[in-house]
């Protein structure tokens, strides 16, 4: 579940394809499922102006995210505030395949459907979905299931607020909740990221251990509230990176995606009434003050190079009084109080049980609902634009639908059809009048598009086949990529990878997918774009072939999205394949057909 959106200051990190936001992974300690291993096409690395929103595994942490008030509470934790919503876990077993399960093939007409068996090593063992954070984060990737209903509307995430004194064990409790939940896509957001920027005088006080980091005025509550609200809505957020070595925010920001569960922890997590309204569950971590002091001494001396006298001075002057005045009184706001912090497995299990019940109550089975939805007799939506059915178009379709067409011819005629598709889509962009002078000195009244920039976003893998045709008809087009795969156990689409150009919210988007059957993958991709604040009316879904059910599903959920295709077939079978269709487009295009 999947961190910067923009490339302004992150170009060095953008070349490292990774996961739903994240970074700082020690690749020598774990075998990671990276997208670059799965798809070896160099096209995934070509866009230097794009960022790795999902699996930024290779970049090192830029700064400590452990605060003077919280952070690494056991002395061996660190940087957990920037955990990615794409979950979470650890060393993969030796027999695990680095490749994802194959996309299901379309059956041959007239052939009996054979029972599909999972390839060896394609199942993630139950025991692997665990979070480990020892200075550097180690994650394995898990696809994010739908976070919206069949109408395309967002489901709110379940937000857990963790409050407690400095070094009370908040991060340990958060880590154990994530571990015991065993669900994909959990976001962990730390209040340590939201310290205010210090001025020169405050910098001097901080260097002398005279600045109170444990006071409510030290935090930017407006930014905290707006960030947590967007995460609850399932949208992406830009989170500051606070460097405690320099007591300042870095230029770069991390993008964190919304998730099924959002855990927000901080010493002042309950100090603002607006924050409390956002939380679905409020947990107070209560640990003996002697233990907190011992942890803080060990952490600050070992990790931050501070002397014992300075640590004790700061603790007695700021930390302990702040706990008594601003933190302990809010214990009454908690739904659950966890004594002894991370050692209290009974309390943590109760929290996990309640969260599981809440998640089950919010769950949806989208693909089956979409496939079973009755659209018989429903007129095609006004947003559907089908390429005019000329003899040339029929002839090209005859080539690409014919099972005996060679791969070379299939690619050639598919590209011809793609170019015609994009020319048709371009005619729907806004145009304005213009006058030009011809070489003969005569003025010509013409038209000129008012769109400054077009971005193509391909839904992998079949959508990638359309990128070349788009680049041939659109000059200087930017290209992004979204990987959505079907979970072979649940049949639901899952988001695995995102790579989008910066400032995408200001552009017109051509969303590319070779075929659209139920519309489940297209809906998820559109939802991703909307979560990046792209206006719905600026999205064009471009596909060579669509099923009627897919058209109706997308149009019903997103009535302002323009749907552009060359043909619409009537049926989708119980395996979610279009009939009569063109088979598995990706297999036929890339030459990966195999005998059943």
TrEMBL record:
Subunit structure: Interacts with RNF19B.
GO cellular component: cytoplasm; nucleus
Family: Belongs to the uridine kinase family.
Keywords: ATP-binding, Cytoplasm, Kinase, Nucleotide-binding, Nucleus, Phosphoprotein, Transferase, Ubl conjugation
GO terms, molecular function: ATP binding; uridine kinase activity
Reaction(s) catalysed by this chain's protein: cytidine + ATP = CMP + ADP + H(+); uridine + ATP = UMP + ADP + H(+)
Annotated protein name in UniProt: Uridine kinase
Subcellular location: Cytoplasm; Nucleus
Family matches, as InterPro entries: P-loop_NTPase (IPR027417), PRK/URK (IPR006083), PRTase-like (IPR029057), PRTase_dom (IPR000836), Uridine_kinase-like (IPR000764)
Gene3D superfamilies membership: 3.40.50.2020, P-loop containing nucleotide triphosphate hydrolases
Lineage, top ranks: Eukaryota, Metazoa, Spiralia, Lophotrochozoa, Mollusca
The keyword Lipid biosynthesis is annotated on this UniProt entry: no
Disordered: region residues: 1-32, 51-131
Stretches with biased composition (Acidic residues): 1-18
Listed Pfam families: PRK (PF00485), UPRTase (PF14681)
EC assignment: 2.7.1.48
Pathway: Pyrimidine metabolism; CTP biosynthesis via salvage pathway; CTP from cytidine: step 1/3; Pyrimidine metabolism; UMP biosynthesis via salvage pathway; UMP from uridine: step 1/1
Residue intervals of the Phosphoribosyltransferase domain: 389-592
UniProt KW Kinase keyword: yes
Main location: cytoplasm
